Protein backbone atom coordinates (compact mmCIF):
# COMPACT_ATOMS: atom_id res chain seq x y z
CA UNK A 1 0.00 0.00 0.00
CA UNK A 2 1.41 3.39 -0.99
CA UNK A 3 1.76 6.31 1.42
CA UNK A 4 -0.97 8.14 -0.49
CA UNK A 5 -3.35 5.22 -0.06
CA UNK A 6 -2.53 4.97 3.65
CA UNK A 7 -3.19 8.69 4.16
CA UNK A 8 -6.45 8.70 2.20
CA UNK A 9 -8.74 7.80 5.16
CA UNK A 10 -7.26 10.61 7.29
CA UNK A 11 -7.62 13.13 4.48
CA UNK A 12 -11.21 11.98 4.03
CA UNK A 13 -11.94 12.50 7.74
CA UNK A 14 -10.35 15.97 7.64
CA UNK A 15 -12.34 16.90 4.53
CA UNK A 16 -15.61 15.70 6.07
CA UNK A 17 -15.02 17.77 9.19
CA UNK A 18 -14.04 20.83 7.17
CA UNK A 19 -17.13 20.65 4.97
CA UNK A 20 -19.41 20.09 7.97
CA UNK A 21 -18.10 23.05 9.97
CA UNK A 22 -17.79 25.33 6.93
CA UNK A 23 -21.44 24.66 6.07
CA UNK A 24 -22.54 25.56 9.60
CA UNK A 25 -20.49 28.76 9.53
CA UNK A 26 -21.84 29.80 6.12
CA UNK A 27 -25.41 29.16 7.24
CA UNK A 28 -25.10 31.29 10.39
CA UNK A 29 -27.62 34.13 10.26
CA UNK A 30 -26.03 36.22 13.00
CA UNK A 31 -22.63 36.82 14.50
CA UNK A 32 -23.73 35.13 17.73
CA UNK A 33 -24.89 32.05 15.84
CA UNK A 34 -21.56 31.92 14.03
CA UNK A 35 -19.70 32.22 17.33
CA UNK A 36 -21.75 29.38 18.79
CA UNK A 37 -20.70 27.20 15.86
CA UNK A 38 -17.06 28.01 16.60
CA UNK A 39 -17.54 27.22 20.27
CA UNK A 40 -19.38 23.95 19.74
CA UNK A 41 -17.44 22.61 16.77
CA UNK A 42 -13.94 24.07 17.13
CA UNK A 43 -13.01 25.76 20.40
CA UNK A 44 -14.49 22.97 22.51
CA UNK A 45 -12.31 20.44 20.68
CA UNK A 46 -9.14 22.54 21.10
CA UNK A 47 -9.99 23.06 24.77
CA UNK A 48 -10.50 19.33 25.26
CA UNK A 49 -7.19 18.53 23.55
CA UNK A 50 -5.34 20.75 26.06
CA UNK A 51 -2.49 21.38 23.64
CA UNK A 52 -0.26 22.95 26.30
CA UNK A 53 -0.27 19.87 28.52
CA UNK A 54 3.30 18.51 28.90
CA UNK A 55 2.18 15.05 27.90
CA UNK A 56 0.29 16.16 24.79
CA UNK A 57 3.04 16.10 22.20
CA UNK A 58 4.65 13.11 23.88
CA UNK A 59 1.30 11.41 23.41
CA UNK A 60 1.27 12.42 19.77
CA UNK A 61 4.72 10.88 19.33
CA UNK A 62 3.49 7.68 20.98
CA UNK A 63 0.51 7.69 18.63
CA UNK A 64 2.81 8.18 15.64
CA UNK A 65 4.98 5.28 16.80
CA UNK A 66 1.90 3.12 17.23
CA UNK A 67 0.69 4.02 13.73
CA UNK A 68 4.11 3.16 12.30
CA UNK A 69 4.04 -0.22 14.02
CA UNK A 70 0.52 -0.87 12.75
CA UNK A 71 1.63 0.06 9.24
CA UNK A 72 4.52 -2.41 9.42
CA UNK A 73 2.18 -5.14 10.65
CA UNK A 74 -0.24 -4.34 7.85
CA UNK A 75 2.52 -4.59 5.26
CA UNK A 76 3.60 -7.94 6.69
CA UNK A 77 0.02 -9.21 6.52
CA UNK A 78 -0.28 -8.10 2.91
CA UNK A 79 2.94 -9.91 2.06
CA UNK A 80 1.52 -13.02 3.69
CA UNK A 81 -1.62 -12.68 1.61
CA UNK A 82 -3.88 -12.03 4.59
CA UNK A 83 -4.83 -8.36 4.50
CA UNK A 84 -7.37 -7.25 7.10
CA UNK A 85 -10.12 -4.73 6.67
CA UNK A 86 -8.95 -1.15 7.18
CA UNK A 87 -9.93 -0.09 10.69
CA UNK A 88 -8.21 3.29 10.81
CA UNK A 89 -9.11 5.53 13.72
CA UNK A 90 -7.75 9.01 14.14
CA UNK A 91 -7.28 11.33 17.08
CA UNK A 92 -9.18 14.60 17.25
CA UNK A 93 -5.88 16.41 16.86
CA UNK A 94 -5.04 14.63 13.61
CA UNK A 95 -8.36 15.70 12.14
CA UNK A 96 -8.78 19.25 13.42
CA UNK A 97 -5.10 20.25 13.35
CA UNK A 98 -4.92 21.21 9.65
CA UNK A 99 -8.48 22.58 9.69
CA UNK A 100 -8.17 24.88 12.72
CA UNK A 101 -6.48 27.86 10.99
CA UNK A 102 -8.90 27.55 8.06
CA UNK A 103 -11.91 27.68 10.38
CA UNK A 104 -10.51 30.81 12.04
CA UNK A 105 -9.95 32.50 8.69
CA UNK A 106 -13.43 31.63 7.39
CA UNK A 107 -15.00 32.96 10.59
CA UNK A 108 -13.00 36.18 10.51
CA UNK A 109 -13.88 36.91 6.89
CA UNK A 110 -17.52 36.14 7.49
CA UNK A 111 -17.66 38.38 10.56
CA UNK A 112 -16.04 41.20 8.60
CA UNK A 113 -18.17 40.86 5.47
CA UNK A 114 -21.53 39.49 6.61
CA UNK A 115 -21.66 41.11 10.06
CA UNK A 116 -19.56 44.28 9.71
CA UNK A 117 -20.99 45.87 12.83
CA UNK A 118 -20.07 42.92 15.03
CA UNK A 119 -17.39 43.28 17.68
CA UNK A 120 -16.90 39.51 17.75
CA UNK A 121 -14.29 39.80 14.99
CA UNK A 122 -12.11 41.54 17.57
CA UNK A 123 -12.69 38.66 19.99
CA UNK A 124 -11.50 35.92 17.65
CA UNK A 125 -7.74 36.26 18.16
CA UNK A 126 -8.07 36.65 21.96
CA UNK A 127 -10.21 33.50 21.96
CA UNK A 128 -7.48 31.60 20.12
CA UNK A 129 -4.87 32.88 22.58
CA UNK A 130 -7.02 32.08 25.60
CA UNK A 131 -6.80 28.39 24.71
CA UNK A 132 -3.03 28.44 25.14
CA UNK A 133 0.20 28.73 23.24
CA UNK A 134 -0.47 25.54 21.33
CA UNK A 135 -3.78 26.93 20.14
CA UNK A 136 -2.10 30.15 19.02
CA UNK A 137 0.68 28.31 17.20
CA UNK A 138 -1.88 26.11 15.44
CA UNK A 139 -4.73 28.55 14.79
CA UNK A 140 -3.11 31.92 14.11
CA UNK A 141 -1.90 32.45 10.55
CA UNK A 142 -0.55 35.16 8.28
CA UNK A 143 -3.89 35.23 6.48
CA UNK A 144 -5.77 35.76 9.75
CA UNK A 145 -3.50 38.64 10.73
CA UNK A 146 -3.89 40.19 7.28
CA UNK A 147 -7.65 40.18 7.82
CA UNK A 148 -7.17 41.86 11.19
CA UNK A 149 -4.87 44.47 9.65
CA UNK A 150 -7.47 45.27 7.00
CA UNK A 151 -10.18 45.57 9.64
CA UNK A 152 -8.01 47.79 11.86
CA UNK A 153 -7.76 50.29 9.03
CA UNK A 154 -11.03 49.99 7.12
CA UNK A 155 -13.22 49.90 10.22
CA UNK A 156 -11.27 51.88 12.79
CA UNK A 157 -8.49 53.80 10.95
CA UNK A 158 -6.35 52.61 13.84
CA UNK A 159 -2.63 53.10 13.20
CA UNK A 160 -1.77 52.00 16.73
CA UNK A 161 -3.79 48.82 16.27
CA UNK A 162 -1.96 48.12 13.01
CA UNK A 163 1.40 48.69 14.68
CA UNK A 164 0.42 46.36 17.55
CA UNK A 165 -0.69 43.61 15.16
CA UNK A 166 2.51 43.81 13.13
CA UNK A 167 4.59 43.69 16.30
CA UNK A 168 2.56 40.71 17.48
CA UNK A 169 3.25 38.91 14.21
CA UNK A 170 6.93 39.63 14.68
CA UNK A 171 6.97 38.41 18.28
CA UNK A 172 4.86 35.34 17.54
CA UNK A 173 6.87 34.15 14.55
CA UNK A 174 3.99 34.75 12.12
CA UNK A 175 5.45 35.34 8.66
CA UNK A 176 4.69 38.45 6.65
CA UNK A 177 3.75 37.84 3.02
CA UNK A 178 3.12 39.81 -0.16
CA UNK A 179 -0.48 40.39 0.90
CA UNK A 180 0.76 41.97 4.13
CA UNK A 181 2.96 44.28 2.10
CA UNK A 182 0.15 45.11 -0.34
CA UNK A 183 -2.13 45.92 2.59
CA UNK A 184 0.39 48.33 4.07
CA UNK A 185 0.85 49.99 0.67
CA UNK A 186 -2.91 50.35 0.32
CA UNK A 187 -3.30 51.75 3.84
CA UNK A 188 -0.51 54.25 3.26
CA UNK A 189 -2.02 55.40 -0.05
CA UNK A 190 -5.45 55.74 1.53
CA UNK A 191 -4.02 57.73 4.44
CA UNK A 192 -2.08 60.06 2.13
CA UNK A 193 -5.19 60.58 -0.03
CA UNK A 194 -7.09 61.57 3.09
CA UNK A 195 -4.29 63.86 4.24
CA UNK A 196 -4.21 65.63 0.86
CA UNK A 197 -7.93 66.38 1.10
CA UNK A 198 -9.02 64.02 -1.66
CA UNK A 199 -11.32 62.26 0.82
CA UNK A 200 -12.76 65.46 2.27
CA UNK A 201 -11.71 68.24 4.62
CA UNK A 202 -12.72 66.29 7.72
CA UNK A 203 -10.46 63.36 6.90
CA UNK A 204 -7.64 65.74 6.03
CA UNK A 205 -7.92 67.50 9.39
CA UNK A 206 -7.84 64.20 11.28
CA UNK A 207 -4.76 63.00 9.40
CA UNK A 208 -2.95 66.20 10.35
CA UNK A 209 -3.13 65.23 14.02
CA UNK A 210 0.22 64.25 15.54
CA UNK A 211 -0.83 60.71 16.41
CA UNK A 212 -1.75 60.01 12.79
CA UNK A 213 1.50 61.51 11.55
CA UNK A 214 3.37 59.18 13.90
CA UNK A 215 1.20 56.31 12.70
CA UNK A 216 2.12 56.90 9.06
CA UNK A 217 5.82 57.03 9.96
CA UNK A 218 5.57 53.72 11.85
CA UNK A 219 3.65 52.21 8.95
CA UNK A 220 6.40 53.27 6.55
CA UNK A 221 9.07 51.71 8.75
CA UNK A 222 7.20 48.41 8.87
CA UNK A 223 6.64 48.51 5.11
CA UNK A 224 10.33 49.11 4.42
CA UNK A 225 11.41 46.38 6.85
CA UNK A 226 9.00 43.80 5.43
CA UNK A 227 9.98 44.61 1.84
CA UNK A 228 13.68 44.29 2.70
CA UNK A 229 13.12 40.91 4.39
CA UNK A 230 11.13 39.59 1.46
CA UNK A 231 13.77 40.72 -1.02
CA UNK A 232 16.50 39.13 1.09
CA UNK A 233 14.56 35.87 1.26
CA UNK A 234 13.95 35.91 -2.50
CA UNK A 235 17.69 36.34 -3.11
CA UNK A 236 18.48 33.50 -0.69
CA UNK A 237 16.05 31.17 -2.43
CA UNK A 238 17.40 32.12 -5.85
CA UNK A 239 20.95 31.32 -4.75
CA UNK A 240 19.78 28.01 -3.33
CA UNK A 241 18.17 27.19 -6.66
CA UNK A 242 21.39 28.04 -8.50
CA UNK A 243 23.35 25.69 -6.23
CA UNK A 244 20.90 22.86 -6.98
CA UNK A 245 21.39 23.41 -10.71
From TrEMBL:
Positions of the Mtf2-like C-terminal domain: 14-209
Ranges of Acidic residues composition bias in the record: 70-89
Region (Disordered): 57-90
Domain of life: Eukaryota
PANTHER family per UniProt: CHROMOSOME 7, WHOLE GENOME SHOTGUN SEQUENCE (PTHR39468), MTF2-LIKE C-TERMINAL DOMAIN-CONTAINING PROTEIN (PTHR39468:SF1)
Pfam families: Mtf2 (PF19189)
Higher taxonomy: Eukaryota, Fungi, Dikarya, Ascomycota, Pezizomycotina
Annotated Gene Ontology cellular component terms: mitochondrion
Name this protein carries in UniProt: Mtf2-like C-terminal domain-containing protein
Source organism: Botryosphaeria parva (strain UCR-NP2) (Grapevine canker fungus)
Amino acid sequence: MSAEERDAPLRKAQKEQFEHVEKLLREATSDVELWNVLENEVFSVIRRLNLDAPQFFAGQEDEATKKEEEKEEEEEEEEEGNPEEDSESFSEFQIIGPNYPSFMLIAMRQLRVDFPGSTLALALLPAIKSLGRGSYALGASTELYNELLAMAWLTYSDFQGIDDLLQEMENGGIDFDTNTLDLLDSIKKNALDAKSGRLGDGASAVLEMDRFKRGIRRLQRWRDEIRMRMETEAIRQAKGYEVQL
